[in-house]
Amino acid sequence: MGTFVISKRFSGDYKFEFTSRKGKTIFTSNAYELRMDCEADAEYLRSVLEACSYVKFKTSKGKFFFRVVIDNRVVAVSRKYSTELMVQKGIDEIVKYGSKAEILDFANNDFVFPD
Known about the structure:
Elements: E1 3-8, E2 14-19, E3 25-29, H1 35-48, E4 53-58, E5 64-70, E6 73-78, H2 84-97, E7 102-105
């Protein structure tokens, strides 16, 4: 099962990441100034993952990624993948396990995850 992990960026803003069953980051949210906004969006996103749009892109260097879109607003960007098939597997994992994912809050700890 995947997990939403809330943490603090070096800039002091908050973010959440969706990590796979194996612990790899699948996507990272936009920055939030307030932790409660970050938590609320993570909760909301978890409840609507199956209805989200997943827009695929290819970088100029040949890597693939996707953006998670809700109501014409980009709420998260995936990590880079080497193939389009891997992108689809990432999206499939989100749709399959995302609604059951727990939310872990590491933002209160003294350490900061790198961006």
